């Protein structure tokens, strides 16, 4: 028995292992085809400053890029932005930047905006953005070094230099928000949209 009703798998325009794991866990067959776009260039050209709007724009851009090259397929694009008041964060380039990001976030509450967009051919069928509020605890420089040693290169693969489903959980004292939103794929709104379109069983 399968809950998915389309003849072909859903396309996920992302190489994120956590997003892939969420779809797999939900029993949605998918094919991962990352979008080859310059996210920072798109963001700069848009002149957007709002974290939610930026995440939505990039999710749509990824979905449309992959959908335009895979005719007739349903494509999900996703993006996540991290903001601390007016400051926007990108993935750290190296350990030094990762330490700087953690240092900036320590003892404060930041926001993760996770956006999804569903596209087919050159049309957006659905878009949604959700927010989670994440409060890092205060810690010493020694703790930052210990964390970076333990996490290794993984700290450069996620904005904020943490993965909550892994060692990053040690950095936090409070979390407000949907687990799926934190992992970068608001799954419940996506499944609701797929059901509305008859792609997932009611």
Layout: helices, strands, pairs:
Layout: E1 10-12, H1 17-25, E2 30-32, H2 39-46, H3 51-67, E3 74-84, E4 87-89, H4 95-105, E5 109-120, E6 123-136, H5 141-151, E7 172-176, H6 179-182, H7 187-196
Parallel strand pairs: 1-2, 1-3
Antiparallel strand pairs: 3-4, 3-5, 5-6, 6-7
Helix pairs in contact: 2-3, 4-5
Describe this structure in words.
- This protein is an alpha/beta fold.
- It has one domain: Alpha-Beta Complex (Maf protein).
- It has 7 helices and 7 strands; from the N terminus they run E-H-E-H-H-E-E-H-E-E-H-E-H-H.
- Strands 1, 2, 3, 4, 5, 6 and 7 form a 7-stranded mixed beta sheet that branches.
- A hairpin with a 2-residue loop joins strand 3 and strand 4.
- Helix 2 (39-46) crosses helix 3.
- It is globular.
Key traits:
about 200 residues; globular; Maf protein; seven-stranded mixed sheet; alpha/beta; about 35% helix; single chain; about 25% strand
What's a concise summary of this model?
The chain is 35% helix and 25% strand. It has 202 residues and is an alpha/beta fold.
Q: What is CATH's topology name?
A: Maf protein
Taken together, the total number of domains comes to 1
Structural class: alpha/beta
CATH class: Alpha Beta
- Helical residue percent? 25-40%
Mean pLDDT: 95
| SSE order, one letter for each helix or strand | EHEHHEEHEEHEHH
Using only C-alpha atoms, the radius of gyration works out to 17 Å
Distance between the termini: 14 Å
CATH architecture classification = Alpha-Beta Complex
Count up the helices.
7
> Main sheet, how many strands, which sense, barrel?
7 strands, mixed
Which of globular, elongated, flat, extended, rod-shaped describes the shape?
A: globular
Strand content: 25-35%
Number of strands: 7
Low-confidence stretches: none
């Amino acid at each position: 028995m399968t809950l998915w009703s389309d003849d072909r798998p859903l396309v996920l325009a992302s190489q994120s292992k956590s997003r892939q794991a969420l779809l797999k866990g939900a029993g949605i067959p998918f094919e991962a085809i990352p979008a080859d776009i310059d996210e920072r260039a798109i963001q700069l050209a848009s002149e957007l400053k709002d974290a939610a709007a930026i995440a939505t724009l990039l999710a749509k851009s990824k979905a449309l890029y992959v959908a335009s090259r895979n005719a007739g397929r349903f494509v999900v694009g996703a993006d996540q932005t991290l903001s601390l008041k007016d400051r926007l964060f990108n993935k750290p380039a190296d350990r030094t930047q990762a330490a700087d990001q953690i240092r900036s976030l320590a003892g404060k509450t930041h926001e993760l905006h996770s956006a999804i967009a569903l596209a087919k051919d050159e049309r957006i069928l659905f878009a949604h953005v959700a927010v989670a509020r994440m409060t890092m605890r205060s810690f010493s420089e020694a703790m930052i070094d210990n964390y970076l040693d333990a996490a290794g290169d993984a700290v450069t693969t996620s904005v904020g230099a943490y993965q909550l489903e892994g060692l990053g959980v040690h950095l936090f004292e409070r979390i407000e928000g949907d687990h799926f939103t934190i992992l970068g794929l608001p799954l419940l709104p996506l499944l609701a949209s797929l059901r509305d379109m008859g792609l997932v069983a009611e």
